[in-house]
DNA sequence: CCTCCAATTGCATGCGGATTCATTATTGCC
DNA sequence: GGCAATAATGAATCCGCATGCAATTGGAGG
């Protein structure tokens, strides 16, 4: 029964091994060095050689092994991109932009997505093991981690994170400036009482935004401020608005949400839960400039982060550091785009 | 001038080289093999040895080089994840889930994001060079590409893509079933004329959805159908609705959008552009169950893809194939969650 | 205290390709 | 046409780690 089949089918299995440069060399009747040279840009090889090798390579379905290459060249051509739930680095356009721009430079993206920013420790360990050439991170590092990475000599670029006491490369949106504009406009338009809806506690960005808003309010002598905090989500946006009203007995003239999604939640709660007219009765503003913020039903007054330019800047900053590790640290802050949407009652456009 | 400095500062530079297992071995006074064994799970090493090695390793800041390890073990412990703008695989939760679950199994994610599904060719080439252990893709491959990957023996799992004539592993949401339910409910509730807003032409998912809707409509003898197509975005959603009205002279009783975002665009256009009441005058339904679909202002009637479960399934399917390459192909289709939102006039809940 | 077996440890080798050095084939130029 | 200079090629080596095999150690059992 078991010996009915005469033809040996093992060939398939043996063939399974990937072709190496040696295989190609043998088939083409040349040395392995030659094959290696043909598959590089700056190598010298005659046209005849090139043709023979490429032909043989094609025949065997040969592809250079990037792992082996990385081992010998000490360059993995991979960068680690670390994002967390709380950043807007995950927008599809951003990821497309990231992987494509890096790809143009022959660099691959190793992605790490964190639930919480604190989880970065183990991630960092992994990136180091994989010999990444650089790190683009939207999560903070501890000074110790910073030092480790620096000692090893891996360039790091922070996205929307910065440090006061450390020399790091960073690209960010000027959150404070944006909030100051929002608050300024609201106060100018006559709003007296304010509600602040903060983001999650571990969000640096949220902290920066609300701090900026508070500072500006103080400068303008506004003291009637109530704050609550949510998790950046729509549902907590709604709950937070309700909480604001409950805490102060009535809705504040203006509500400043740490991001657009919570602002949208606030708008819905104000309208549906309290029958208020936005912006007739009260104003609500957000931050980010995400897609839904511009939907007709909300048209949120907000500050839009120039995500495309920020990402572009971060990418080239990292690539530069990889090429030239001794460039001095640089911080770039972009101003947000001011969106005078219909969710806040502002004075008409400045003259 | 150039010889003023007496103290040699080259030490730093020399120190820059990463510590290898040999360095650790020398410091600990053991063989390199020993070091290697200590840093593996199934290796045999005495407690004394372990301590000495770990101590030395710690001193030098040694980390195993995953690249070198990958070369020798023929396992890169990396998988390629290919997403395109048109998939919902990019949601932050999904990416978090992906990277974390893989990470638990010691697997890293190499991310590729495509602008168009057609760009997959070069991506595939890259993944193969990087010796990934598996591929999770939300983009289609040509039969030739499929064969290449299969010959090399890399397991592939398709996400929301499937093939009729090829043996592949896939995890998907049953788009057709979902659309059939939506159409069925709409017809039962008395809608006679229908508008269909398709997605981009190169979207397989959109094609499946609209085809499913059309089939069900035909079965129910509905012939009054107008269709237009957009790009999955909010703006085209609005334009598409306007186009629908223009083409047929009045709004259809029900509009079926290929995704939620376009459905939201349609709702806004119907309300703002044409002063229609949704769902009083007309019904509009979507597909996906994305966040904004459940915002109070829209409350879209839709079918929510069980993204979490789908992702989970895709991950374990791929991991299984990596462990055991000879498992036979498997296709898993998940039913979507039916959301009877407020954007469509349906008969009250089934009894 | 000795024998025998299992657990440790070291040695040597190889994974696949880049690169240095030496050698050989070409080309340019007087 | 001959010689120097340059391009093309091959041999050998190394990158950092895992692993088969042989040698050694440590115990258990008698």
List keywords for this structure.
homodimer, 351 residues, alpha/beta, Rossmann fold, six-stranded parallel sheet, four-stranded parallel sheet, 44% helix, elongated
Description:
2 copies of one chain form a homodimer. With 351 residues, chain A is an alpha/beta fold. Chain A has 3 domains: 10-64, lambda repressor-like DNA-binding domains (434 Repressor (Amino-terminal Domain)), CATH 1.10.260.40; 77-172 and 307-334, 3-Layer(aba) Sandwich (Rossmann fold); 175-306, Rossmann fold. In chain A, 44% of the residues lie in helices and 15% in strands. Chain A has helices at residues 10-15, 21-28, 32-38, 47-60, 66-73, 92-104, 120-129, 143-152, 175-188, 204-219, 234-248, 260-274, 307-323, and strands spanning 78-84, 108-114, 134-137, 156-159, 169-173, 194-198, 225-229, 254-257, 283-285, 302-304, 331-334, 337-339. Chain A has a 6-stranded parallel β-sheet with strand order 2-1-3-4-5-11, with helices on both faces. In chain A, helix 10 (204-219) links the parallel strand 6 and strand 7 (225-229). The model of chain A is unreliable at 1-15 (pLDDT under 50). Chains A and B meet through helix 5, strand 1, helix 6, strand 2 and helix 7 of A and helix 5, strand 1, helix 6, strand 2 and helix 7 of B. Chain A binds a DNA duplex (30 and 30 nucleotides) through residues 18, 20-22, 30-37, 39-40, 43-46, 49, 64-65, 67-74.
Concise description?
Chain A is built from 13 helices and 12 strands. Chain A is an alpha/beta fold.
Strands, helices and their partners?
The structure is a homodimer of 351-residue chains.
Chain A: H1 10-15, H2 21-28, H3 32-38, H4 47-60, H5 66-73, E1 78-84, H6 92-104, E2 108-114, H7 120-129, E3 134-137, H8 143-152, E4 156-159, E5 169-173, H9 175-188, E6 194-198, H10 204-219, E7 225-229, H11 234-248, E8 254-257, H12 260-274, E9 283-285, E10 302-304, H13 307-323, E11 331-334, E12 337-339
Parallel strand pairs in A: 1-2, 1-3, 3-4, 4-5, 5-11, 6-7, 6-8, 8-9
Antiparallel strand pairs in A: 10-12
Helix pairs in contact in A: 2-3, 2-4, 6-13, 9-10, 11-12
Chain A binds a DNA duplex (30 and 30 nucleotides) through helix 3 and helix 5.
